[in-house]
Amino acid sequence: MVQIRFKKSIEVNSDINKIWNIISDINKIPEFWHGTREIKKINDNEYIVRFAFPQRGRVSFASSKKDYSLTENYLSGPFKGFTKNSLFNKDDKTVLTTEWNIKLSPLLALFSFRLTMHFEAGAENALDRIKKFSESSI
Prior knowledge:
Number of strands: 7
Radius of gyration: 15 Å
Number of domains: 1
CATH topology: Alpha-D-Glucose-1,6-Bisphosphate, Chain A, domain 4
Distance between the termini: 43 Å
Number of helices: 4
CATH class: Alpha Beta
CATH superfamily: START domain
Structural class: alpha+beta
Mean pLDDT: 94
Shape: globular
CATH architecture: 2-Layer Sandwich
Order of helices and strands: EHHEEEEEEHH
Strand content: over 45%
């Protein structure tokens, strides 16, 4: 399996708790992360995710307000592994970080270079959408 790993960060001029309320709301994920079309709960902590490309996956979430982090654990589907969104304060700003560590299915591995660029650009766009939303509603 081909592994994709990267980390992206952005400074946000907004209160850490305000941003936390956005990134920890599982139902808001498709609003900011356009690679995720839909999330449906199937049991206590497992969901079916419909991606922008015609695939579905099973995911669980681990949330920690103490660490201001939300981890999506991809259990099955087109890739396995995790993405983690987290926050910390730096000077007068809040830093929002997304970290990806996923392994592509054999079929998607054929497109690993293109998918890596696509996922990185999508992550940057999502961080920018969260930043703009957080700063516009100060």
